[in-house]
Amino acid sequence: MQRGFCSTVIRRRCDQMPPAADPPLTTTPTQDDLKRVAAYHAVDLVQSGMVLGLGTGSTAVHALDRIGDLIRRGTLRDIVGIPTSTKTEAHARAVGIPLSDLDVHPVVDLSIDGADEVDPHLNLIKGRGGSLLREKMIEGASKRFVVIVDETKMVNLLGGSGMAVPVEVIPFCSKFTMSNLRRLFSGIPGFHLRLRTTPGDEMTPAVTDNLNHVIDLFFEDGITSDLDAVSDAILKIVGVVEHGMFLGMATSVIVAGKDGGVTEINRMGVRRIISG
Ligand SMILES: O=C[C@H](O)[C@H](O)[C@H](O)COP(=O)(O)O
Predict the structure, then answer these.
(1) Is the pLDDT of residue 18 over 60?
(2) Are the C-beta atoms of 183 and 146 separated by less than 8 Å?
(3) Is the CB of 56 under 6 A from ligand 1?
(4) Of the candidates 195, 115, 114, which has an alpha carbon nearest to the alpha carbon of residue 161?
(5) Does domain 8-154+248-268 have CATH number 3.40.50.1360?
(6) Alpha-carbon distance 266 to 121, whole Å?
(7) I need a labelling partner for 210 at 20 to 30 A (CA). Which of 56, 193, 196, 259 fits?
(8) ipTM (interface pTM)
């Protein structure tokens, strides 16, 4: 077994499973292998009887698969999942995770989700897949929110990867809302923004699960201003529903590295080597 790609706990669970359920052990891990490794470690925190926030995206899907697997095997019982998107809802159903919502289960024991960026204080950018609003509601209602990423998601400054900081807006006069957002950041060198469009159709705005639009903000040098002030200013614009900065929400982040090392970092900056 390759060093670092199976923790003691995962190894124990691997021993109980046929090879098909094991994490793939490739010589050079792909980014998807790393996402899977981080996800499996997070699922080690799940206990029977928990209400779980089920994240969205290519990393979270590995957690869904793993949870479904453990439910089918009887290792996890009485799990209730709260999906953060319609996509996750469909996938969770397909893998056999019983589902509910925040109206019925307003307190979530543990949420597990990916992120687009994680800064050294565990502030996050999420929502490049468009699911930021439901994610923020469910993860904000969680006693514990564990973020799962491969090492490429770690940045010094939010926005610093050059990718978007998403803002969900109501469709009504979204160009008007966009011009207000443009005005807010007009003095910042390298700032630009654009309305997110449907893949393959640049004329049609992308629509979220909540039937809203998304305006993507780009900060060439990352966000250098106070993040809480930036958050407040964006939320003050009428027409904005929510943004993808998740500030002070994550309890910890599990980071899988190319060298096989897996580390959990908590919000105090304390690192725990899980493996490798
Ligand atoms: O809207 C999408 C979500 O916020 C995802 O959690 C985020 O984009 C990370 O996705 P992935 O795991 O696919 O990189």
Answers:
(1) no
(2) no
(3) yes
(4) 115
(5) yes
(6) 9
(7) 193
(8) 0.98
